[in-house]
Amino acid sequence: MRIGELLGAGRTADVYALDENWVLRRNRDGLDATREWAVMSYLSAHGYPVPRLGPRDATTAPCDLVLRRLTGPTMLESLESGDLTASEVATVLAGLLAELHTVPARLSPQPEDRILHLDLHPGNVVLTPRGPVVIDWSDTAEGAPALDRAMTALILARTAVDPRARDAASACALALLNALVPHFSASGGMPAAHLAEAAARRTADATRGGAAHKRHDSNNSHDEDGGDVRAHRKRSDSMDEADLFGRAVALVTEVM
Asked: What is the dihedral of CA 158, 164, 29, 135, to 10 degrees?
């Protein structure tokens, strides 16, 4: 398999061209993609719009997924360019979550559990000529649909309250959050317990990601107290993310 040019980089993985029809998505840090592949296969069998999967056998690296190449903008790009309104994006995004939550859990014995994406925001929906396709299933789990709705709302709210975000990005996130909440309320809402769980999960994920990005600098430090410096940075990252998601929870609660 000849790996071509880097096409894009996400939060946890990089995507490379293989040919005009297929791409390779490689998880960073060797994260095993086997579970993700199994969930996507299961969803595809249920008719849910996920990328078509390529072959996976004993020669495939655990961190790799071969996927059908998608053409079209992400829903985020269409929102920021003005091609779609916040109301239009909210309708599609809420519909994708509602459709996903009709699929029974693959493993859980609890009849009320469903497949959850846990990172379903406009940047993870590609608007192809055949319709929207949901990408990046690395955070997938099984559980209560309310947790999935809470996670989507919090991701948008975090962008809206983050002082480092571009003004346009914050404005788009806030407009979309306001448009989504009525859809989510009609689907069962976002109880406080699920908002708190979503914030805790996302804070932990962001802190681990921050630590990984700082690893190169830390490992090349000549400070005798390098371990203490790293520990301080990790605590600082955790506090920053906890504060942002605390503010995000407050915003979602206010909008509801």
From this structure: 50
Residue 238: enclosing H or E segment and its boundaries?
helix 226-255
Q: What is the pTM of this model?
A: 0.85
Q: How far apart are CA 58 and CA 121, in angstroms?
A: 33
Q: How far is CA 129 from the centre of its chain?
A: 22
- Pairing relation of β-strands 64-68 and 114-116? unpaired
Distances (CA, A) of 57 to 1, 30, 65, 116, 242: 13, 17, 11, 26, 40
What are the average pLDDT values for consecutive 10-residue runs of the chain, which has 256 residues? 83 88 88 92 97 85 91 96 97 98 96 96 96 95 97 96 92 97 95 95 73 33 40 50 91 94
Whether the Cβ atoms of residue 125 and residue 135 lie closer than 8 Å to each other: yes
107/113 Cα distance (integer angstroms): 9
Chain-centroid distance, C-alpha 225: 36
Residue 47 CB coordination number (10 Å) = 9
CB-hemisphere CA count at 13 Å for 177?
28
Q: List the structure tokens of 47.
A: 């008719």
